[in-house]
Amino acid sequence: MTNALFTLPGFAEGRLIGLLLLILIFVLAINFMGSAKVPYIRRVPALDAIEDAVGRSTEMGKPVVCSYGCGGFDYWTIAGLSILGYVAKICAETDTRLIVPTGGSASSYIVREAAVDLVRNAYTAAGRPEAFNEDDMPFLSGEQYAYTPGYVGILVRERPGTMVMTGSHWSEAMNLAEMANAVGAVTITAGCYTSNMAALACASDYIMLGEEQPAAGAYLSRDPAQMASIRVQDIYKFIAIGTILVGLIAVNLGSDIINRLLAT
Cys bridge to 208: 25, 162, 213, 220, which one at CB 3.0-4.6 A? Predict the structure, then answer.
């Protein structure tokens, strides 16, 4: 039997199963977003680490530096913004200075405006709107490697007690984490790709691995779209694992039907 029996007219080989899975993901996401029952997401341990680290900065009278990344409104940046809002809330309640370096790419200009509103709202919700200072949210540059030395300069001058670095940080992340360590800050980071996480694990006191960052963002924001995204990813993983197991069993029984289905 050939792959031709598993393909439909008008579909390029290898695209049909991908299309069906995409439709399934779309339907599941819409279903969870519209459901009255909120998907369960456990509290990520990193949030407790952030609370402890900010508390340490408060006791030491040192500022907290928190960044949400260099990217535009992508998957990781949205999670980073949710975590920034959480850090801003704690800082506003404890009267701890918060510094938020912004910039890093051409798409970061518009994200900065959302970040400013987010931090301002956190201070207002805490009953201390007068404590918000936009000068503590400097736009360093629209270029990644002009943004990086500006960020490093803040760490050297201000010597924060805590640095929380989440969102879409790329190759500059290691420079920032190493400098935060050098000035004695508790360093909490989150990587957005595998090699990034491997490097940051060596330079951080605490790191959010893989989907811990978006899970933390969804947990904090309670945004239906973010929570649905996390839930659908879990379901997709179970489908992938199940397919692998069925394929292994089928191959050992002498059938390659799963291989041929995935090739359609």
Answer: 213
CATH number for the region 45-221 comes to: 3.40.50
pTM of the model: 0.81
Token output for 207: 């790191």
pLDDT band at 55 (very low <50, low <70, confident <90, very high): very high
List the domain boundaries for the chain.
12-34+225-262, 45-221
pLDDT digits (tens, 9 = 90+) for 226-254: 788 878 888 888 888 998 899 899 889 88
Burial group, residue 107, by CB count within 10 angstroms (0-12, 13-18, 19+)? middle
Beta strands in the chain (DSSP E): 64-69, 98-99, 102-103, 139-141, 162-168, 186-190, 206-208
| Distances in whole angstroms, Cα of residue 36 to Cα of each of 31, 33, 59, 224, 226 | 10, 8, 42, 10, 15
